[in-house]
Amino acid sequence: MQAAEPVELETKKLSAHAKLFPPEFAAVYEEHSRAVYYLALRMLSDPTQAEDATHDVFLKVYRKLDQFRGEAGIKTWLYRITINHCQNLLQTWQHRHIHSNADDAVWDTAVARTDSPLRVLETKELGQRIQKTLDALPEEYRLLLLLVADEKMSYEEIGELTSQTPDAVRGKLHRARKAFAQHFQKTA
Amino acid sequence: MDHDTSHLRHREAQEQTNQQQSGQTAIEFATTEEMIRHDAAQIEVPPAIAERLSKSIAAEPKRSLLGRLRFWK
Fold first, then answer.
1. Residue A15 in contact with residue A75, Cβ under 8 Å?
2. What digits encode the pLDDT tens for the residues A48-84?
């Protein structure tokens, strides 16, 4: 009985998206919005800007459907649009200014999916520590770690997204993991 | 990598001990990727995005999605 609840919840969410979007677009949003939002959140380090970025990315996806021909997977395509969008934002002075003023209160609303009140505290702390650690890393390391954490992404696809060979991805990931572990310890 | 992973695991275990002593529980991860995956799974996409996106799409010129989506997936 309990096992049926999450399915019912997912069905309700899908129905909600189906009412908002054309059916096929709703399915894409349902399947990939979390990955896009999470990538934007951790790249931009700001929940409000991540919301804006996710909206803008999916609006671009809607507009660019004609250009997608399936040479790469849909997720790789979505990630490419997200990365380009976030990197453009990061390059502007305006973003850096807003980021420096990011309020901790904003983070309180960023994590909501939890199993219990205690879990909320744990999850929030972990998310904040991960964010602080990623913020301390070079942008390239941050991006590689976020992409490789997606089990569906191959080194070839990550190399394609970051304009380097799979071997280069492997080598840099080794250094990125090491840097992450070192910085993560400092966030305790 | 093994050293880093082991160090990370040790650190998490140490924190777990500290937290258990203070009545809290901790989560242990074997790799950085595992930790990030766990973090990502906890994130809820704000519903406001879909609502805003729906309004933006409604304001777009009408276009047929059918037939163009056969390449997807």
1. no
2. 999 999 999 999 999 987 677 766 788 999 999 999 9
Q: Which domain holds residue B34?
A: 2-72
Residues of B with CB under 8 A from a CB of A: 1, 4-5, 7-8, 11, 15, 24-27, 31-33, 35-46, 48-54, 56-57, 60, 63, 65-66, 68-69, 71-73
Q: What is the pLDDT of residues B15-58, one digit of tens each?
A: 555 555 555 666 778 899 999 999 999 999 999 999 999 999 99
Residues of B in contact with A114 (CB under 8 A): 42
The number of domains in chain B is 1
Which has more confidence, A178 or B67?
A: A178
DSSP A126-180: HHHHHHHHHHHS-HHHHHHHHHHTSTT--HHHHHHHTTS-HHHHHHHHHHHHHHH
Cα separations (Å) of A34 from A25, A29, A131? 15, 9, 17
Distance from C-alpha of A14 to C-alpha of A30, rounded to nearest angstrom = 6
Q: Which one is predicted more confidently, A7 or A58?
A: A58
Cβ atoms of A142 and A42 closer than 8 Å:
yes
Residue B26 φ/ψ region, left for φ over 0, alpha for ψ in the -120 to 50 degree band, beta for the rest:
beta
